[in-house]
């Protein structure tokens, strides 16, 4: 790999019925990568996609979720999900819970999972004004020796 690699972004309707397609597309885009890495990314993508649908306008009738994927360097793979905004808040892990509360909690574990499977994660607004969308990203460690040979700087997905 001589430089960064970017995959063409994918746009999905904001419906949880899309999750199987979202996971399948990611697996196809990452063909040749370590299967355990692909599985971790699929799990994190599922959580980020579900959060976008549940907590933002992405889950409304005409809402959308955008997935991006890049290999900014030989040892990092970055996955991101952008929502349609309108959620009124920012992604966060509930820090006010104690161990027992986490044991009994039925939700809000997705970002905790992303935090534990990735080497870093974060978020930023799509624009500096209003609630017009948030991009949530996670970065994963990649062994450079396992990166498939022949990746072009821009990978078309359609």
Automatic annotation (TrEMBL):
Domain Histidine kinase/HSP90-like ATPase, chain residue ranges per copy: 15-119
Keywords: Kinase, Serine/threonine-protein kinase, Transferase
Entry's Gene Ontology molecular function annotations: protein serine/threonine kinase activity
One protein family per Pfam: HATPase_c_2
Official protein name in the record: Histidine kinase
Native source species: Nocardiopsis sinuspersici
């Amino acid at each position: 790999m001589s430089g960064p690699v970017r995959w063409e972004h994918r746009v999905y309707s904001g419906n949880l019925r899309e999750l199987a397609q979202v996971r399948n597309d990611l697996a196809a885009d990452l063909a040749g990568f370590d299967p355990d890495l692909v599985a971790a990314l699929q799990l994190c993508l599922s959580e980020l996609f579900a959060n976008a649908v549940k907590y933002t306008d992405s889950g409304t009738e005409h809402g959308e979720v955008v997935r991006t994927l890049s290999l900014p360097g030989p040892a990092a793979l970055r996955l991101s999900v952008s929502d349609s905004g309108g959620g009124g808040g920012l992604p966060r892990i509930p820090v006010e819970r104690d161990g027992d509360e986490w044991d009994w909690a039925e939700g809000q574990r997705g970002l905790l999972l992303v935090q534990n499977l990735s080497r870093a994660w974060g978020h930023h607004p799509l624009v500096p004004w209003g609630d017009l969308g948030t991009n949530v990203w996670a970065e994963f460690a990649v062994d450079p020796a396992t990166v498939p040979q022949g990746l072009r700087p821009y990978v078309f997905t359609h």
